[in-house]
Write a structure and sequence with these properties.
Layout lengths: L8 H28 L3 H4 L13 H9 L2 H33 L5 H11 L6 H11 L3 H5 L7 H25 L3 H9 L4 H12 L1 H17 L2 H6 L7 H5 L3 E2 L2 E2 L1 H21 L1 H8 L7
Antiparallel strand pairs: 1-2
Helix pairs in contact: 1-14, 3-14, 4-8, 4-11, 5-8, 8-11, 9-10, 11-15
């Protein structure tokens, strides 16, 4: 063995267990991807066809007949814009809580309770509010109302902001205050200290918060399902729309689900080291 290492029986059992868990969790993704490339006659056969002739018909149907390209565009716009708003507002909010102890912990706890509230409890008031706003001139200018992207941006920002504040709060707390005091002695203003000293040091925490907020927005379903109709539908709602009078269109559904899942899966795998670094940032104190 390399470096003279000998695997014990415990190591073999451990690796076998890890491989079994990987197969268990990754097999549904494998099945979804392979189904997206199968012809309709090969999808529901018994026993299943493991060897088949791949086809792109399901993807063509999803993008041309079901207009899935529009759903992807809406999801990208809503997810990215809402994440930017969350990071900007969350950074200022969490920094103020970390440095000035605003509310002495009570306000932070109140913010956390808003994140615990189930979406279904507020969806009807949101529906009425945005339906009313959509009939006004302000709603037209800000692209707010039912079936509009601005509505989802506001909903996702409000939904993710408490999580972002709580997550970034600990990162800002771990930055030594002496560094800020030294920068103030050098003539920096409070905002310059925040922008030039604090934000670069908190970059791992901000990065991991951005990743989680983007994933939450990308995968959100209930707001998008109840507050959109056609023009502002997102990818998760589009995946749920492959139901016809003939039944479920399994091939296009698998193709749409693959387009929904695989980009975020690759995104998470590429950035996993940043996620680990951000989650362990400041874990060891001197």
């Amino acid at each position: 063995m390399p470096n003279g290492k000998i695997f014990t029986m415990a190591d073999l059992v451990r690796y076998a267990l890890v491989i079994a868990l990987l197969i268990f969790f990754l097999f549904p993704i494998y099945w979804m991807i392979t189904t997206s490339f199968k012809a309709p006659g090969d999808i529901l056969t018994r026993p299943p066809k493991w060897i088949f002739t791949p086809t792109l018909e399901n993807y063509v149907y999803a993008f041309e007949e079901a207009n899935f390209g529009l759903f992807i565009k809406n999801t990208l716009i809503v997810s990215v814009v809402s994440t930017i708003f969350v990071i900007i507002l969350g950074a200022f909010g969490s920094y103020s809580f970390a440095r000035y102890n605003i509310g002495k912990g009570h306000l932070m706890f109140f913010i956390l309770t808003t994140r615990m509230m189930p979406i279904i409890a507020v969806i009807i008031p949101y529906f009425v509010i945005f339906k009313t706003i959509g009939r006004t001139t302000i709603g037209e200018l800000l692209w707010l109302g039912l079936d509009r992207q601005g509505t989802l941006v506001i909903c996702y920002t409000m939904f993710n902001l408490p999580f972002a504040i709580w997550l970034m709060h600990s990162f800002f707390q771990d930055i030594p205050k002496e560094l800020e005091d030294s920068a103030r002695l050098d003539g920096y203003s409070r905002f310059q200290v925040f922008r030039r000293v604090v934000l670069p040091l908190a970059a791992p925490g901000i990065a991991v918060t951005s990743i989680f907020c983007l994933l939450f927005s990308w995968n959100e379903f209930l707001f998008a399902f109840l507050l959109t109709r056609a023009d502002a539908r997102t990818i998760t709602v589009g995946v749920a729309g492959f139901w016809t009078q003939r039944g479920i269109l399994w091939g296009p559904l698998a193709a749409a689900a693959t387009v929904c899942v695989v980009p975020m899966l690759i995104f998470a795998l590429i950035l996993q080291r940043y996620i680990a670094r951000g989650l362990t940032f400041g874990a060891v104190r001197g």
